Amino acid sequence: MLAQKTIEIIKSTAPVLEVKGTEITSLFYKRMFENHPELLNIFNHVNQKKGRQQTALANTVYAAAQNIDRLEALLPAVKQIAHKHRSLGIKPEQYPIVGEYLLKAIKEVLGDEATEEILEAWGAAYGVIAQVFIDVEEGMYQEAASQEAGWRDFKNFTVVKKEVESSLITSFYLQPEDGKMVPDFLPGQYITIRTAIPGEEYLFNRQYSLSSAPNKEYFRISVKREAEHSPEGKVSNYLHDSVSEGAVIEVSAPAGDFHLDVNDHSPVTLISGGVGITPMFSMLEALAKNTPSRPALFIHASRNEEVHAFKKNVAELMEVLDNGRAFFAYEKPVNAGTLCDHRGYIDTAVLDGLVDRDSIFYVCGPAPFMKAVISSLMSIGIPEDKICYEFFGPAMKFQLQEA
């Protein structure tokens, strides 16, 4: 428990963190990596370069400061981050390193404003918050390891099949190198792929949604090829160009709190943009296999028909569902004769005439797409607590009211 004086100091410094949080976290990462470069084997370098991780951490620290006297309010966010940490193999012994350089960054940015009293308060608060993460993550590690065919950190998997799904997306079928079956997971969850790329100093970690329903034989990820020389393209191009059938890669146990509620039988609407179709297809396939009577609407937006993955597969699953419907939108079809349900963006008018108001909604895709879709859903009267969504990359909140 924190002393009341410590709580008062933390809450009084929260406004400063709101203003200077990203400056502090940017300096924190810079100093920490200078002194502990081995941690670059864990962190996503792209998110670092684009400032996403710094912003996400700043938001987390600010939220912790605001809620330091009621940490239970942070548990949903803690669990979401803990899923990421568990899938990356974050260890308890790394938390003191983070604490040390976070306090040093606070001191360096705030200067004389960061008195010894303030730094001591933040040191105590960080210790409490870190322990919450450590405890939650240990529970997740134990759960991952204790389930049938489970494991704790990373495990070698063999690429047993590569399959082209569209002009940009290729699927990789992964089976355990030891010949054992794969563990169960919830439709919508992801795995982390850890790989060494020739010529690169550090390991790369990328999280990919599982794109098939749970089965005992394999995991499947479906990877979009990013622009060749973009930071995002480093791993995706390596997988597309250099990882062939028979290759061995390291894989984490499935993780993530964005998933289909398999015990709910109310109508469900799955809305995706681009490669955001991957967790949605896992959900749709699971519905067809386990609860085909559940009403399901599958809405997908693609730039054009050439980049649209799983179109035929979705149509086949619709034949299995008792009350299923697919709706495809193309921004700019390549061919004039291409058939689709809508040309242009999925906007408020489209959703207003399409969705069941009693549905549970799942949304995944690029951030601008999700912001537009979620704002449109809310504007037609869908309660926010009926809308589930997931970002690619660090968890970051957007201001829906600006849409």
From TrEMBL:
Region (Reductase): 149-403
Pfam family, one: FAD_binding_6
Keyword Ribosomal protein part of the UniProt annotation: no
InterPro entries reported in the protein's UniProt record: Cbr1-like_FAD-bd_dom, FAD-bd_FR_type, Flavoprot_Pyr_Nucl_cyt_Rdtase, FNR_nucleotide-bd, Globin, Globin-like_sf, Globin/Proto, Hmp
Reactions performed catalytically: 2 nitric oxide + NADH + 2 O2 = 2 nitrate + NAD(+) + H(+); 2 nitric oxide + NADPH + 2 O2 = 2 nitrate + NADP(+) + H(+)
EC number of this enzyme: 1.14.12.17
Annotated active site: Y95 (charge relay system), E137 (charge relay system)
Entry's cofactor comment: Binds 1 heme b (iron(II)-protoporphyrin IX) group per subunit.
Coiled coil: none
Annotated site (Influences the redox potential of the prosthetic heme and FAD groups): K84, E390
Record's comment describing the protein's domains: Consists of two distinct domains; an N-terminal heme-containing oxygen-binding domain and a C-terminal reductase domain with binding sites for FAD and NAD(P)H.
Protein name: Flavohemoprotein
Origin species: Bacillus salacetis
